[in-house]
TrEMBL record:
This is AB hydrolase-1 domain-containing protein. GO terms for molecular function: catalytic activity. It holds the Pfam family Abhydrolase_1. Signal peptide: none annotated. Gene3D superfamilies: alpha/beta hydrolase. Residues 27-117 form the AB hydrolase-1 domain. Residues 236-255 are annotated as: Disordered. It comes from the Bacteria.
Length: 255
């Protein structure tokens, strides 16, 4: 059964959901969106087929930070703190929505530990938002419950106000990790221009459109995105194992 665990980073006590089980050499670290909590994903973790954890960033769910900081570098450090609590080896990075830039900032700073990347309906950017948009988000509902019960209001505003507009397209394209991207064409976040850029910048990426989904790509089928991630990470593991075997053979021949 999945269990909630805690770790600490930069003045925050961070909660994460851990499926347990065999990580097959590289667990999945999932960083979901701004209005998500780890509890949302208890039922989908088994679909990933290996040990997987869901990160609750500071100010979300039961992850607390009394006074911040809430900038993207600190939130990327939150991701790293959970990774380090789970393993000292490689991981598969999985994201959804606004969790994407924080996960990617960690991944770009730790490329040797990243086996693959899966992005759910977002672009490789940190995007600044206005207070009006944040107010609407925090006063709305997500998956049937008030967002105010999911995200601490002060922390939510602090997180968005600390955001800075920055592109991660270029550094991610330079790394070319095994990449899976899913988008909903019914949402404005990954528009046609961004989708075309994904195709151009990542020619080997696996790109999928969920034409019947809103921005919440876990609707109407909660397991569809995780099933694609499972196929993607299994292929990335096979490729990594192949590279390792080839390197061993070369060293044997050279010696």
């Amino acid at each position: 059964m999945p269990e909630f665990r805690f770790t600490e980073h930069a003045g925050a006590r961070l909660r994460y959901l851990d499926s347990g089980g065999d990580d097959l050499g590289a667990p999945v670290v999932f960083v979901p969106g701004f209005t998500c909590v780890a509890d949302d994903y208890t039922e989908v973790l088994p679909v990933l087929g290996r040990r997987a954890v869901v990160v609750e960033l500071r100010g979300h769910g039961h992850s607390h930070a009394r006074s911040g900081p809430f900038d993207s570098d600190t939130l990327a450090g939150d991701v790293g703190a959970v990774v380090d609590d789970v393993t000292d080896g490689p991981v598969h990075v999985m994201t959804f929505s606004r969790g994407t830039p924080y996960a990617l900032l960690w991944a770009l700073a730790n490329p040797d530990r990243v086996r693959s990347v899966s992005i759910g309906d977002y672009v490789p950017q940190e995007i600044a938002l206005s207070d009006d948009i944040v107010t609407r988000l925090l006063e709305g509902r997500w998956r049937g419950t008030p967002v105010g019960e999911r995200v601490d209001r002060a922390a939510g505003f602090a997180t968005i106000r600390a955001a800075r507009t920055q592109s991660l397209w270029e550094p991610l394209a330079c790394r070319q990790p095994p990449l899976l991207v899913v988008r909903s064409p019914n949402a404005p976040i990954v528009d046609d221009a961004a989708w075309a850029r994904y195709r151009a910048d990542f020619p080997a990426a696996k790109l999928h459109e969920f034409v019947d989904s809103p921005h919440d790509i876990f609707r109407p089928d909660r397991g569809r995105y995780p099933r694609l991630v499972r196929e993607h990470i299994d292929a990335a593991d096979d490729a990594a194992d192949g590279r390792s075997a080839s390197a061993t053979e070369r060293r044997t021949i050279e010696s």
